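Deliverable D4.2, example record:
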Amino acid sequence: MEQIAETTRQTYEGWDDFFAKPVDEKLDFFKIRGRIFDVIYAQQFDREFLDELCDLADKIRLLAKTKMGAQKLSRLLPHKRAMLYFVQPSTRTFLSFQNACFLLGLNVSESRGTSTSSEVKGESPEDTIRTFASYVDLIISRHPEAGFAEKTAWVLNQTERPVPVLNGGSGPDQHPTQALLDIYTLRREFASIGGIDGKRIAMVGDLKRGRTVRSLSYLLRNYKDVTIYYVAPEVFRMKEDIKVFLKRHAIPFHETADFESVLPKVDAIYMTRIQNEYAADPSRETETYPDFHFKKEHLARIHAHCAIMHPLPRRYEIEVAVDKDPRAAYWRQERNGMWIRAALIAHVFRAEQEILSEFA
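Output generated by the structure prediction step:
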């Protein structure tokens, strides 16, 4: 297995200088030899990469179904160590990354908050990250601060040990690996009806602060003739930067507060919860916006092939009675996270050919 080269990248005057640059100008900084090294933004992925990664995830889940296949997967990366640095609360992202590492044989360390690290003694986050990099070969981070994963990668890429960083959620900004599992889910849900190309996808709820819908919007530019419907209360409409991006790439989108009118038009409905953890005072943000909830009665108004998705956790925006409908894809979507994240880790460590060779 080819080892990741420990090389330095182009240097900048400082973090502020780097952070201020447009994303498109920074993408090469997170590559080594033309391959993705750090996973920070959804904009890093093109159609070829997405197709290859989804194919690899399918192969991994097939291998994992048998004892012999699972043993082969577990022997791929036992010499590698991963750090799960999850400062922000998480269930699905943490467990799917942890189990993706276990599938491939990685040893895993974890930190679920700054209160157990030397940051309570005044150590800077940058020094904490460099400490992690001294012991592990991969850092997977989740943090409430926008730009944290990017800064982590930037700091390490200036050092003699630039271990890869995977962004497991960075404030209300981006969640690129969630977008990967969403694409993987859409591809599987639409496998019998032509895939993602040509589909109409509604994103519903708190679009302003929802990093999952932002990252998925970026990824949908890789598919042909996709139309997006942004359905939200006025206060939670999608931010302008995403709309500017879609216009630049000629991706049609519509904005509305009329959820009912969109139901019969779309092929997928991506529900989200109100992200009041980002409110100045979450205890005062108590409105539930029932006009933007998916109810059992709505099942009669959507297409027979429509996929109902949700990044979870949910509160009240999808009635539990909807779970029994075969179009409720969110529990399949959740499990898909483990497979696509295992594929991503295999790619980062250049182990994909060993997996694919099992099917040659």
